[in-house]
Write a structure and sequence with these properties.
CATH architecture of chain B: Orthogonal Bundle
Helix content of chain B: over 70%
Number of strands of chain B: 2
Helix content of chain A: over 70%
CATH class of chain B: Mainly Alpha
Strand content of chain B: under 5%
CATH topology of chain A: ABC transporter involved in vitamin B12 uptake, BtuC
Distance between the termini of chain A: 27 Å
Largest sheet of chain B: 2 strands, antiparallel
Number of helices of chain B: 11
Largest sheet of chain A: none
Number of domains of chain B: 1
CATH class of chain A: Mainly Alpha
Oligomer: heterodimer
Number of domains of chain A: 1
Strand order of the largest sheet of chain B: 1-2
Distance between the termini of chain B: 47 Å
Structural class of chain A: mainly alpha
Shape of chain B: globular
Order of helices and strands of chain B: HHHHEEHHHHHHH
Order of helices and strands of chain A: HHHHHHHHHHHHHH
Structural class of chain B: mainly alpha
Shape of chain A: globular
Radius of gyration of chain A: 22 Å
Radius of gyration of chain B: 19 Å
């Protein structure tokens, strides 16, 4: 990428910034991603019981939601407390279209994404005039409103009319799945592929112009404006993209659940979504996967062990406090660092042990408070 | 459209609800102005206090002691949170500080779920002795609890306004709302003033939790998110004016309850605070961008 500005300190600074933003290609990372995707697609399904297959499908779907949230919070600095509601809109639209039409499943998924994107954009257009705290609060309000509205409208269950809900029907037909992915393991693979596509879509955005614009906006909106970035446009773009992928996730969720009930959705979902996204790490795409694992796989494991979900809620609460006070980049950033530190410690211990007499083990490697190094939320 | 007589009882309950929203909203605004923290755990703290009071009453502790514990619990827990998490986050964006209180919300939420799991059918409730007595005004029956709800809203709004205006501590809080650093250089014990604001806000959370547990129902989710309604009132006042907060809270309470008899809208009445706050915020933003970074906010 070349910078076509003439001379001056500003141009140098801009060039430096662009160089900083453009991270070098790392083939090792690509290899890790390919191995991870292959493992999730081929190695995992035969290993898992039906119980865990269902939950891992949810992990794949929710990783799209946390990806969207990470995009908003981590890349653009827009805190949304209403992603749970966006997901509900996507699920509702997806279910409605799957009942109403006989279009192929992928078409419906994309349509649900587009409808959600449209609704998100219409809401985002005025809401993005607000900043920071006020934007977060208005999204929380909208999430509350959507939850209340959908509790009354109900999710489609094969009825007629606009709402597609028939309160008296006895034999509720399940929401259909794609013909190639009727069984649970097949649907799991399908969901993983969709999630991979969404990650690729977001990654492509981050590596190109919009990603750089978002990074500039997150650092300082006035500075981005001064640098000639159309901040409203790019913020709306991030908002719409997040709505689109969350809508896609919603339609996938409809196919996974097969029966949707409004009692399964609540306002606190939106808060827990933000919590796991922050804990996973919003500055890293892996953070989205970690967040989804925390939100969907951990409860499944705990349920298997007979531990109450309430403990998990407490853990998420503590996690949010910990992330915000000491480790703003979340687990995705913290874990490799801690692992490296642990590795270093073990190496030192091993080295120390060889020549000399055995020493008492050092203090357990904890997570020492860390100064926010990069990309602190603004 | 139902007749007027069907609306009448809801005027009273709406005013009472509005009063409690006002009291919560004022607590939120004062804490926000003094410390820059929007205390989203307000409802959860009140709910937890109400649950503790309920458990104590079940254990045949005298009612007044349980209510006192509820209110003090709110104050102390909020104070402890403020003391632990206030300083490390003091220089962060108001948004980050608000999201941190969501962490406390989740912790309390989980704790309530664990200690008092939702019962299938049995409805828990706290009844204050003021439920039984009452009086009639203009043909409307009013219980003392409802009067206390509205009265508490009025008295605390007026009291807080007077406190901020006339006392030394109140003046210090107003000064901190303007500029924390300068206030500190002027010799105001900033941390102590903040502690007072945290404690006061927590006391209000306890009172609101107790009153809402009586007026609405004792349920963790309901109580935690009902106080989003008072947040709506505070937002309509743009987290600044306590007089506007009070008025907005009364309007929200009234509209919410007056929608009850209208069949077409009754299921949607819980949307009232969200919709009103959203409209108000968008209306404000039409005219001027709400800044987060400006001095007035911090």
């Amino acid at each position: 990428m070349t910078v076509e500005t003439k001379g001056g300190a500003a141009a140098t600074a801009a060039a430096q910034r662009l160089r900083l933003l453009r991270r070098p290609q790392r083939p090792a990372h690509l290899a890790v991603v390919v191995v991870f995707a292959a493992f999730a697609l081929f190695a995992l399904p035969p290993l898992m019981s039906l119980y865990y297959t269902g939950y891992m499908t949810l992990v794949a779907i929710y990783s799209i939601v946390t990806l969207g949230l990470g995009l908003l919070v981590g890349r653009t600095g827009l805190y949304s407390l209403g992603q749970g509601a966006v997901l509900q809109i996507g699920a509702w639209t997806g279910a409605r279209l799957l009942f109403a039409t006989s279009q192929p499943f992928p078409v419906v998924v994309i349509e649900a994404g587009l409808v959600t994107m449209g609704i998100g954009t219409v809401i985002g257009l005025p809401a993005l005039r607000l900043r920071g705290l006020y934007l977060a609060l208005i999204t929380l309000m909208l999430a509350g409103a959507v939850t209340v509205a959908l509790a009354t409208v109900n999710f489609p269950n094969g009825g007629g009319g606009f709402t597609g809900y028939n309160g008296t029907s006895v034999h509720i037909p399940p929401i259909r799945r794609p013909s190639i992915a009727g069984t649970d393991p097949a649907y799991y693979r399908y969901a993983v592929v969709v999630a991979l596509l969404m990650f690729a879509l977001v990654y492509a955005h981050l590596r190109t112009r919009p990603g750089r614009a978002w990074a500039a906006i997150r650092q300082s909106e006035p500075a981005a404006l001064a640098a000639g970035i159309n901040t409203t446009f790019y913020k709306l773009w991030a908002w719409s993209l997040a709505s689109f992928i969350t809508g896609v996730a919603g339609a996938m969720l409809a196919g996974q659940a097969r029966y949707l009930y409004s009692i399964n959705f609540s306002t606190q979902d939106s808060i827990i979504l933000l919590a796991v996204a922050l804990m996973g790490g919003v500055y890293n795409l892996w953070g989205a996967v970690i967040g989804a694992l925390l939100m969907q796989l951990l409860p499944a494991i705990l349920q298997n062990l007979g531990v109450s979900y309430a403990w998990l809620t407490i853990l998420f609460g503590l996690g949010v406090l910990q992330v915000l006070t000491t480790a703003p980049a979340g687990i995705a950033d913290q874990f490799p660092k801690d692992a490296r530190r642990l590795g270093g410690l073990l190496t030192r211990l091993a080295r120390a042990r060889r020549p000399g007499p055995p020493r008492p083990p050092a203090a357990p490697p904890g997570t020492p408070p860390q100064a926010p190094s990069r990309g602190e939320a603004t | 459209m139902p007749s007027w007589s069907e609306f009448e009882p809801f005027i009273v309950s709406g005013l009472a609800l509005g009063g409690v929203y006002a009291l919560s909203g004022v607590g939120l605004v004062v804490l926000y102005r003094a410390t820059g923290v929007l205390y989203l755990a307000f409802g959860a703290v009140g709910a937890m206090g109400a649950f503790i009071a309920w458990a104590m009453i079940q254990g045949s502790v005298p009612g007044w002691a349980a209510w006192l514990v509820c209110v003090l619990f709110g104050g102390l827990l909020t104070l402890i949170y403020g003391m632990i998490f206030g300083p490390p986050l003091a220089r962060r964006d108001p948004l980050v500080r608000a999201v941190a209180t969501l962490g406390l919300t989740l912790v309390l939420f989980g704790a309530m779920d664990l200690l008092w799991p939702p019962t299938g059918g049995a409805v828990r409730s706290i009844s204050l002795p003021t439920d039984n007595g009452g009086f009639t005004v203009l043909g409307l029956n009013v219980t003392w609890t409802q009067l206390i709800g509205l009265g508490a809203g009025v008295v605390l709004t007026a009291g807080t306004a007077a406190f901020l205006r006339f006392t030394k501590l109140g003046t210090a809080m107003r000064a901190m709302a303007n500029d924390r650093e300068i206030t500190a250089t002027l010799g105001v014990p900033v941390r102590r003033v903040e502690a007072a604001a945290w404690f006061g806000c927590g006391i209000l959370a306890g009172i609101a939790g107790l009153l809402l547990a009586d007026l609405v129902q004792l349920d963790a989710t309901t109580l935690t998110f009902l106080v989003i309604s008072s947040l709506a009132a505070a937002l309509i006042a743009r987290l600044r004016s306590i007089a506007v907060t009070f008025a907005a809270a009364i309007v929200i309470g009234l509209v919410h309850d007056l929608l009850t008899p209208i069949t077409a809208l009754t299921n949607y009445r819980d949307m009232t605070p969200f919709v009103l706050a959203a409209i108000a915020l968008l209306w404000v933003s039409r005219h001027r961008t709400v800044m987060t970074r400006s001095r007035e906010e911090a």
